[in-house]
Specification:
The protein has seven helices and seven strands; from the N terminus they run E-H-E-H-H-E-H-E-H-E-E-H-H-E. It has one domain: Rossmann fold (3-Layer(aba) Sandwich). Strands 1, 2, 3, 4, 5, 6 and 7 form a seven-stranded mixed sheet that branches. It is globular, with a radius of gyration of 19 Å. The protein starts with a strand and ends in a 27-residue tail after the last strand. Helix 1 packs parallel to helix 7. Helix 5 links the parallel strand 4 and strand 5. The relative contact order is 0.14. Bound molecules: flavin mononucleotide (FMN). Flavin mononucleotide binds next to helix 1. The site of flavin mononucleotide has 17 residues, from helix 1.
Amino acid sequence: MHVLIVFCHPEADSFNGVLRDVAVRTLRKQGHGVEVADLHAEGFDPVERGCHYPQRKNPDWFSGMDEQRHASTIGSLPDDVAREIERLERADLVVFQFPLWWHSQPAMLKGWFDRVFVNGALYTSTMRYDRGYFRGKRAICSLTTGAPEAAFRENGRGGNIDTMLWPTQYSLYYMGFTILQPFIAHGVQGLSDFVRVEESRFGDHLEGHKLAWSQRLENLAMAETVCFPGWKDWDEQGHAAAPAGNETVLTRA
Ligand SMILES: Cc1cc2nc3c(=O)[nH]c(=O)nc-3n(C[C@H](O)[C@H](O)[C@H](O)COP(=O)(O)O)c2cc1C
């Protein structure tokens, strides 16, 4: 299997960086090929805008969807976007490694979605969801949170993590990926603390996350998926024709 790790953190030596390294080590040990897309280190530009398209379909008025479709048709996608798509094409599994920022994925990663998931080439009105371009490939979000695990339980102050991850995971499903249950390392306050208190209980807490992540990666064959509705569930307006059963809703079973 070939794995792409999309790493989104401005600090390479952060705890997210530690989890990235755990993934690289664990997956390589199992004989998998691993590639890392380090969005910050590579200077990925996450802002979709007209300057990315020198051969504009409409030079007077910018429409992201139109220019993406046009650029993919005439073979002039921006170099960085083309590189990311090639990486995705090579991958059987894509790991997204990021910290929870403002109850969501960081803006850098959101912008990566905005630019890399190209209209026309990678999705159309008929090529999406369970008929999406990347069907057959799997994706998993591995994230860290500042707040502790208890804060994300029902009515907790951290909020509902399934709801927070919904836009990220549903967008990946829209692109055709099968979504594995996320890996969440709660209560991570930063590696500087980790170094300072390496021998303390907080150090043990972070070591526990590292171990849990490597064990999760070692057992990918048995990984549970997040289920979403598919084309068979919707009527012509895109509404679920019948109440969704257990198998068609977001679950954390
Ligand atoms: C801009 C920003 C927003 C954040 N928002 C949240 C949040 O909504 N919920 C949360 O639990 N932690 C939040 N945090 C804390 C980070 O999730 C935490 O610092 C990170 O997961 C620690 O991993 P790291 O050491 O690799 O950065 C936020 C941190 C930053 C910098």
